[in-house]
Amino acid sequence: MGRMGGNQNQNQKTYSAIPSDYKLLEEVGYGASATVYRAIYLPFNEVVAVKCLDLDRCNSNLDDIRREAQTMSLIDHPNVIRAYCSFVVDSNLWVVMPFMAEGSCLHLMKIAYQDGFEESAIGSILKETLKALDYLHRQGHIHRDVKAGNILLDTNGVVKLADFGVSACMFDTGDRQRSRNTFVGTPCWMAPEVLQPGSGYNSKADIWSFGITALELAHGHAPFSKYPPMKVLLMTIQNAPPGLDYDRDKKFSKSFKEMVAMCLVKDQTKRPTAEKLLKHSFFKHAKPPELSVKNLFADLPPLWNRVKALQLKDAAQLALKRMPSAEQEAISQSEYQRGVSAWNFDIEDLKAQASLVRDDDDMLETKEENESVKSSVGFKAGTGFQFSLGKSNSIAELSQAESRGPTNQLQLYESLNKKGKALEGDSLDRNQENIALRKNGSSTEEMASTSEKDTMQTKAKAVKSRHTQSGPLMPGMLLSHSSSERARNSERCEIENQPPTEKSNREVRRAPSFSGPLMLPNRASANSLSAPIKSSAGYRDSMDDKSKANLVQIKGRFSVTSENLDLVKDIPLSTVPRRSQGSPLRKSASVGDWIFESKQVPTSPSSKDLNSCSVAASVLMPHLQNLFQQTSFQQDLIMNLLNSLQPAEVLDASQNGKLPPLPRSTENNGNVEPALSERERLLLIKISELQARMLNLTDELTAEKLKHVQLQQQLNSILDQEENGD
Ligand SMILES: Nc1ncnc2c1ncn2[C@@H]1O[C@H](COP(=O)(O)OP(=O)(O)OP(=O)(O)O)[C@@H](O)[C@H]1O
After folding, report:
1. Which of 296, 255, 254, 286 has its CA nearest to residue 116?
2. Closest ligand 1 atom to 53 CA
3. What is the pTM of this model?
4. CA nearest 556: which of 42, 70, 5?
5. 258 C-beta neighbours (distance < 10 Å), count
6. Is the pLDDT of residue 45 over 70?
7. Using one digit for the tens of pLDDT, what is the confidence trace for 403-420?
8. What is the C-alpha separation between 511 and 513, in angstroms, rounded?
9. Ligand 1 atom at shortest distance from the alpha carbon of 102
10. Residue nearest atom 26 of ligand 1, based on CA coordinates
11. Does 481 or 661 have the greater pLDDT score?
12. Distance CA 458, CA 451 (A)
């Protein structure tokens, strides 16, 4: 057992890393990879929360986890939950935190406010959350998982933002997904730029999630939460942003609506910073949380009883339902409960789930949708996808091709690829392929993963194996998700089309064309097939100057800052050997983001050369950087793909001379191989084939389901006739 991180501040109490010092009591929550217990820290006789993360389900490097834990323990803000300490116990990581006796906003809504909170409480909760975001952004961090489930409440009305850092490394690493093959994140809270490869994201992604969280608190659920993740993804990218624009929202003030609309602007550069948003009149008039939030818990039973009640209620509901719909429910609940944590998707799971959406349900949805969405096209028979014609040609083309069938889609993909268009970042198809690349493992496992039964079994097993200390345990159940309302998509083009303000114009002008090592790829793009990382200058531009200047790395959900940035900021990425030993730039094993170690910056001859020709360098740098990143990601993706291929297939392909040999060791792939482009081309074809196969299978499945429905209808009519005959 080793201590992972703890607060070093002399003025603060020190918590030991000895498991027997903690008496675990009731389970008070669970997430995708962790169960949270109320516990007593015996030396202080103090109630704390212990989050137990199952390390078996995460192949992350312990060093990365340690770094995350240390960063988490350095967080110091009244609205951000801090880790007292964290340490490994058997195969679990225990994170000790303050106990928030009223649990998360999500829990509270489920138990007592299924249609959301009233505006005054929402204002207070959001204001406190925004203070937390402002702090994190100033420190150079992006939270990336802002949602009601991560806003914790204390009995006296204190609001704290939780769930980052340690869990981030669990969620972000592809290893975790590979090892479990069960995870599919719901992109309900994700900003469009996060969902689209290559576009790059920054702290403004948190502002989008914050806007979605505002809607979640107002309605009791996030927009699109009843849809399968793939559909949510499409709707987020292609529809107008959701808002508080409907009849049911009449009760909300103009300033609340306006604030939400400001957050939910698709163009990230037009979203306000947390600091600026805090000055909005909605927050100026927000009541202190001890006045408005505290009232929410009056007369409610203790948190653990609520959690237990929710679990029992959901279990009973599920048991009552017929299996197919129970499965659907479980999937939907599971997705909602698991939330947005992983910024990775799994195309096959997504497709499988999309095909489970009942058509009759969608017909209703579509009717409603058509009221607000001006033009929409069918996505794919049987899946119920609907989306408006988007701005992007490639998305529209691909979508139409998708609706025409897999062959067309493949052809279009290939033609785009030929034209070079397919490398554009906003290609949905590419996004799907990126997603597909994350898949590894057998389809049997994968299908099983979506079933309620397995989810429960897995959770029960995990809880059993974890809990060796004490405390009554409930088998982990899926939380209920009462959302039945769909989100509406209102056109708010005025907001999006607003001309940039004078200030933002100035910002754009000031924007450096060379983004340096800080221009980090987004997670989606890091996994993209070959999408170039467009200039991610926005990352710095949109941050406060202070944090911009200090940012040196992103780890998990953290980007860590340094005062010595100047030392490193002009080192071109293209001159830095990637992931080779001793390189200052390497990839975090846990999170897939770049880490720059400022102390080890080499002075490379090429950077000197470039400096001697500064004009050319400034023009060249972004291109070189993009090229470098592109190649790196391609390498990653190829490795991912190779890993996902059956070994026999790889062997076969290389023996037949189809594929040039590729070093399988991830240690060696820092250098760009000359044969890479040929290999990439072949692999792209392979990917296309795989995707086409997958689409065919999905189509077959859909056709079978249709047949099944028709047969059932025939059977029903025969039975009716027989009954009438009788
Ligand atoms: N400090 C705490 N005090 C009280 N309850 C907590 C605390 N931390 C977490 N919880 C409860 O446990 C739930 C799960 O915790 P958490 O979100 O950290 O787990 P996770 O596995 O990281 O979840 P997710 O899937 O949302 O990322 C929370 O939604 C909340 O209800």
Report:
1. 296
2. 21
3. 0.51
4. 70
5. 15
6. yes
7. 433 333 333 333 333 333
8. 6
9. 4
10. 31
11. 661
12. 11
